[in-house]
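Tip: read the tokens left to right.
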């Protein structure tokens, strides 16, 4: 008999997979249809669905804490915070929404999530795949590094549009904000990569031991 927890986590991962699949398909279709002009309105066409998926990803912190999902909490916390922080900034700054770097950022986020959620679905169904396992924990890491670098570029391009009045109210000036956040972003990414490498080694070793027992 299926438990509520199993049905819930399967439905969640399926929703995220379908959402990111739609975003990626929409982005690629628009690019082939409109060419480079599609880059400018990526946010307007897929921004709502992307925002919904990223907002719901906060639930994953509770999944891990509750034991529904087997993963490390710290790297997931860093990923959720950095994505939602950048997304809120883009939503607030209309001038940034039409930047091509936003399209690149969304594309990388989608690739990362489409490498992760199918693997999670297979784990929930207790039908793990070594191909998905290797892809999830090997190809994912260099793509994550590229995604973090793109986040830094997005932040840098958004900086001139940040309202000086809003920053002055907290006594923080744009250059200071950039100098503080970028090292924090780099540190968080380094910790995440270190944790993911340990998680990758752990999962691959478990798979090898499972294959030997067979």
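Filled-in amino acids:
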């Amino acid at each position: 008999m299926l438990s509520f927890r199993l049905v819930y986590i399967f439905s969640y991962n399926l929703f995220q997979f379908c959402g990111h699949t739609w975003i990626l398909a929409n982005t690629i279709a628009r690019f082939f249809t409109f060419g480079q002009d599609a880059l400018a309105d990526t946010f307007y066409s897929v921004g709502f669905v992307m925002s919904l998926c990223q907002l719901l990803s906060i639930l994953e912190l509770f999944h891990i804490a509750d034991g529904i999902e087997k993963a490390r909490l710290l790297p997931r916390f860093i990923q959720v915070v950095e994505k939602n922080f950048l997304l809120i900034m883009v939503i607030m700054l209309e001038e940034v929404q039409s930047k091509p770097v936003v399209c690149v950022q969304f594309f990388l986020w989608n690739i990362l999530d489409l490498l992760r959620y199918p693997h999670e679905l297979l784990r929930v169904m207790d039908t793990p795949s070594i191909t998905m396992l290797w892809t999830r924990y090997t190809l994912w890491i260099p793509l994550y590094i590229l995604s973090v670098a793109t986040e830094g570029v997005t932040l840098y391009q958004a900086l001139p549009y940040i309202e000086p009045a809003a920053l002055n109210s907290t006594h923080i000036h744009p250059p200071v904000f950039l100098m503080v956040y970028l090292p924090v972003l780099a540190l968080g990414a380094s910790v995440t990569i270190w944790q993911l490498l340990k998680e990758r080694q752990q999962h691959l070793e478990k798979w090898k031991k499972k294959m030997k027992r067979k």
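DSSP finds ten helices and no strands in the chain. Residues 174-213 form the longest helix (40 residues).
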